[in-house]
Amino acid sequence: MSDEIHEECGVFGVFGVDDAASLVALGLHALQHRGQEGCGIAAFDGQMFHHERHMGLVGERFTGADLTKRLPGRAAMGHVRYSTSGGSIAQNLQPLYADLQSGGFAIAHNGNLTNARTLREDLVAEGRIFHSVSDTEVVLHLIAKSTRNTTVERFIDALDQIEGGYALVALTNKKLMAARDPLGIRPLVLGQLGDHFVVTSESCALDMIGAVFVRDVRPGEVLVIDSDGLRSYSRVPERRPRTCAFEYIYFARPDSVIDQIGVYESRKRMGRILAEEHGADADIVVPVPDSGVPAAIGFAEASGMAFELGIIRSHFVGRTFIQPSQEIRDMGVRMKHRANASVLKGKRVVLVDDSIVRGTTSRKIVRMVREAGATEVHFRSASPPIKWPDFYGIDMPERDKLIAARLDDFGKIADELAADSVDYISVDGLYRAITGQPRNDKAPALTDHYFTGDYPTPLVDFDRGLADKERQLSFLDVA
């Protein structure tokens, strides 16, 4: 019942460097914002694979001088993971590993397959045995059953059978492979550390290990990295990319660059355009930290109002905090956010957040700001109204739980949040903030179905009635 949106994971792989697992651990630490429930690393030492998967944070599990003894080798890859409700179990952690006919094979991915349930049922009917409920294992089985001649061909054969949004990294005893879905929904970048190549979900992970950003992996591209260097395969005709808009709104770290667009500057532009579209007669602009900060800075700059830290966030709230009663659960928002009464008292406040999902947390924050003495509270969202669920790797509630789908009148939403007004950036405004152009057939495209209902790929499992939104997320336990 979380009111936050969670992205499912991040991946990192490196080939041909000393102490590869240590570099992967550093890279995963930079990607920790993409998943905090579990992490894993697989490494190959030239003779055999070594792999570990743990619940918890990277810094808790992959530290110490013995890391390279536990995970030796000059090639390694890893994964950080967020699971949906009911899926937080060790067997679903990644990378997944199997001994295939061609040798050891480790694989991890970020995203969600929209035909995984269909493929899984077919594979089970063939006698395939599954050990997890992750759709990543579906890909592993497709690779294992492929009759193509080489490992690369079998990898591409499996990719040709899946639908959805994904960034995949796989490690064999001879090569590191990476692939991005044909529309580029999920991000994946290529970097270089000296003469060696790195692939990862975000450019900020390259900065962590001192690697140089080379380029984004192209939509539909497969990269193969081995002792001979880098090879690229384009397995589908070039299509208009549709990067997930929420990477820019919320998921990516502000210091990352995705598809040549800086995340931090995009978020500031969202705030500026939001102020132009829906200004407010108020005294101060206050972000809902941390993700609302860049947009609030932009809003303050465009409106001429003072930017103030009227809400202070605690970064030391554990995810495992026990909530034995509704009264204690209601206090959870106060554990994470505290009103700064010295800033808020007697002020007309504009609250800026990255998005409004269910509305429950937003309502609690509005109440907290009022109790701290604010005379007016105007809520502004740096994303358009979220009206549709996601099927590509975002843990987003089913449609009847989304406040903007239930209440299509902003005045009614303001009443439910107990705010003096509520407004959202427009879809065109969001496009201008990210791509520089309004939404049209010629402008750079984004995956924006959560605002528009325009899903970029077939929703095979959903359309076949194999799983409704809630069952799909719990059964498949998106990666």
As a percent range, the share of helical residues equals: 25-40%
- The quaternary organization reads as single chain
Q: What's the structural domain tally?
A: 2
The total of helices stands at 20
Class by SSE composition: alpha+beta
The number of strands is 26
Average pLDDT figure: 91
- Give the strand order of the largest sheet, numbering strands 1, 2, ... along the chain: 4-3-5-2-11-10-12
User: What is the C-level CATH assignment of the largest domain?
Assistant: Alpha Beta
Strand residue percentage:
25-35%
CATH topology of the largest domain: Glutamine Phosphoribosylpyrophosphate, subunit 1, domain 1
CATH superfamily of the largest domain: Aminohydrolase, N-terminal nucleophile (Ntn) domain
CATH second-level architecture of the largest domain: 4-Layer Sandwich
* Rg of Cα set: 22 Å
Overall geometry comes to: globular
Largest sheet: 7 strands, antiparallel
Distance between the termini: 19 Å
Uncertain segments of ≥5 residues (pLDDT<50)? Answer: 319-326, 468-479
Structural description of this entry:
It is a single chain. Helices cover 32% and strands 27% of the residues. Strand 16 and strand 17 form a beta hairpin. The strands form 7 sheets. Strands 4-3-5-2-11-10-12 form a 7-stranded antiparallel sheet, covered by helices on one side. A 6-stranded antiparallel sheet has the order 6-7-8-9-13-14. Strands 19-18-22-23-25 form a 5-stranded parallel sheet, with helices on both faces. Helix 1 (20-30) packs across helix 7 (203-209) and helix 9 (263-277) packs across helix 10 (293-303). By secondary structure, it is an alpha+beta fold. The model is unreliable at 319-326 and 468-479 (pLDDT under 50).
